[in-house]
Amino acid sequence: MVAQQILHFRSIGFSDAEEFFTQIKDELEDEASMLKSLHLVENGLRNKGRELSKHLLQGYLNNCGDGDVGSEVITSSQIKLTHKRFMSRKIQTFFGTVVLHRVGYSTRGHPSLYPMDAFLQLPSSSFSYPLQKLLISEVAKGSIEEALQLLHEVTSVTISKGRAMTLIQNSASDFDSFYEAKGKPTTATNCPIMVLTTDGKGIVMRPEGLREATKKRRLTIENKHKTRLSKGEKRNAKRIAQVASIYYVDRFIRHPKDVFDEYYRHQANLRRPRPVAKRLWASVEKDAAETIDNLVVHAVKRDPDQKKEWVVLVDGQDYQIEQIKAALQRQRVQATIVLDIVHVIEYLWKAAHQFFEEGSLSCERWVESKLQLILEKGGRKTAGSIRMSATKRLPEDKKEVVEKTANYIAKRSAYTNYYDYLQSGYPIGTGVIEGTCRFLVKDRMDITGARWGLAGAEAVLKLRSILKSQDLDEYWNYHLHQEYQRNHLAKFSNLPEILRSLS
Predict the structure, then answer these.
(1) What pLDDT, on a 0 to 100 scale, did the predictor assign at position 29?
(2) pLDDT class of 42 with cuts at 50, 70, 90
């Protein structure tokens, strides 16, 4: 019976495709005689072309054979599967649903194995790999809803949001092993500086995805609104995603006046070098310490002999600085830690508003003078100058904000030797990581009303990281190889021999 069914499908072969092609050709000949508009014919062919491709793909499967490799198949755990039966499997493809008819091998208490599935390297789900790649590439760019809508428009395939999320999570499952196996990254020989930078950004999570401390605080707050979170509630519904980036850059030697003019005279310097060989990633599942440690480990992979000058750009967050220094120490490497000048400027403005009316010329000039001082003399002298001004000119009730600014700068004065940094051509702003946080987290994960599960958020962050690092094609090929290992090679004792018998 099995043999008869297989022979039936083999006899069909490509006949359906040939018949459908003839039908399309005949219709076009009729339409040409009626002189229909080109756009109408084009629109009609778009769906028919997809249907023809589906018939051709089905014809290919019809001709592939049944996967019958003899009386038995032996599993990787040396179990003999001797019961043979004819089974069909539907596969959703770019062109529509096709059906594979093949022989399965089984025995009591063990799932069936299908040699033809292994030969064709089929996925474990019913959705083909090209469909999955389209889905994840679109999810990496925008919302899941938009990705599913586009998928339906392009392929007519409908996938539920829950099923899509399962595919997304599985597609991102080889992220860590891919970058571990990727080998030594390309070294930018013309760029003497390697920059490491990291920052954290909150993602609104479902309660079960929050860290324990945040979850406990969340339980103590009563929601003011049924459909959205207010400011305080949102803060206690977030889990921090730690973002990391590494790249090479050429020297950009400047003087304090150049930086001053760029920020306050809007005289952009067109010679600014661009980052090279940039890689970025983020994790909401791993804590900040682990992500920062991975960043330094990756840096060592890039430059094991420290032939580059390492620069670590930070925003001043104490915990991050502590973790960076600890990670550098563990790897026995050295780096110059630089405090982001933009964060310093923001603190200067907060202090200035205590001395002068907001928006006044005096307020602006005060900030300019302190910026010039910190660029030339560093943080310690600037903090002292700010405190002296507060002592002389401010009442007690206005000193708190100014003291906070002075403390911020003084505590991090070791990372504010901007004059030396500029002379060495180092970057002093965290624009790259700010942009990375915006792309990886805020633009995608902070969509109004979105509340993420932990696994889903982690998967989307990984896919966006792969896309932004321009590794999507290479990653996908690696993922398909890993899928083949998991879904097929690991289940048979002698799959290579089986496949040779089918080819």
Answers:
(1) 85
(2) confident
The Cβ of residue 245 has, within 10 Å, a number of other Cβ atoms equal to 27
| Minimum mean pLDDT range among 150-159, 384-393, 446-455 | 446-455
Measured in degrees and rounded to the nearest 5, phi and psi for residue 107 equal -155, 165
* Cα–Cα distance measured from residue 303 to residue 246, given in angstroms and rounded to the nearest whole number: 12
CA angle at 412 for the pair 410 and 418, rounded to the nearest 5°: 95
Q: What is the phi-psi region of residue 331: left when phi exceeds 0, alpha when psi lies from -120 to 50, beta otherwise?
A: alpha
pLDDT at 216: 64
3-class DSSP state of 74: strand
Please report the pLDDT score of residue 438 as a whole number.
74
CA gap 337, 90 in Å, rounded:
56
End-to-end CA distance of the chain: 24
φ, ψ for residue 344, nearest 5 deg: -60, -45
Phi/psi for 427 (5° steps) reads -70, 150
Asked if residue 183 has pLDDT above 70, the reply is no
Cβ-contact 236, 207 below 8 angstroms = no
Residues 136, 247: Cα–Cα separation, whole Å:
25
Q: Which of 64-73, 287-296, 322-331, 443-452 has the lowest mean pLDDT?
A: 443-452
Tokens linked to 128:
């083909």
The two three-digit tokens of residue 375, written as one number:
């660029």
- 87-112 in b/e burial notation, b at 16+ Cβ within 10 A? bebebbbbbbebebbbbbbbbeeeeb
Two tokens, residue 402: 């100014």
